Amino acid sequence: MNENWNFPIVIISDNIIIDSLVQCYKDHNTPLSVQEDSWHPLCGLEMEMGMSGNTNTEVCIRRSRLYYENHAIKQCDALGGRNIVYSAEKLSADQPIKNHSLILVTARLDSKSMFDGIVPGALSTVTSIVTLLSAARILSQARSKLSPPSKPNTNALFLLLDGEAYDYIGSSRVVYDMKTGGFPKTSLPIGEQHVKLMIELSQIASNKYIDQTQCCITRG
């Protein structure tokens, strides 16, 4: 995704259009002899693509300020997001957190792909989010059934990180806030010294759907 190509790239997923293009090439462009091979193709394709946010970030932001100052729609905007934090055990400022007593369980909230709605980029995100939420719910229910509640030496902290698809915005902000004493809030800071283990949940699913999609995309 961070590679820069100097030519436009498009994807065609309609099988009717794909068959039409392939048949057009076979009917008109397949050379019948060595002499005809030197001729230009008889079947061509012209595509029209509108580009409203091209050039670079500086130009895009300047255009947004000039032409879209009074409109909600912008050509480009600053990237950002909101992380979600949940603790299996209640955190209190009256009870200091011990060093190496937290297990961080993380999953990303976002995904990106070159072709929206075609490449199953959200598959890995959804499966990891569902797994994280299920684990948090099970631990919470098990905790509520204990009588009296025990005081474990280790606590689990569940984090849903936003902006990971764009240079790891969510996790970078967590590390920054840990170093500056602002995670998850200034009244109850959690630092790197408190973390014992970090578990990152990524794609948890069969690749059957992905294989089928790639088959359709690369067809022809």
From TrEMBL:
GO biological process entries: Notch receptor processing; protein processing
One Pfam family from the record: Nicastrin
A GO term from the CC aspect: plasma membrane
Entry superkingdom: Eukaryota
Classification via Gene3D superfamilies: Zn peptidases
PANTHER family, per database record: NICASTRIN
Protein's name according to its UniProt entry: Nicastrin-like
Source organism (scientific name): Diaphorina citri (Asian citrus psyllid)
Taxon lineage: Eukaryota, Metazoa, Ecdysozoa, Arthropoda, Hexapoda
Gene: LOC103521741
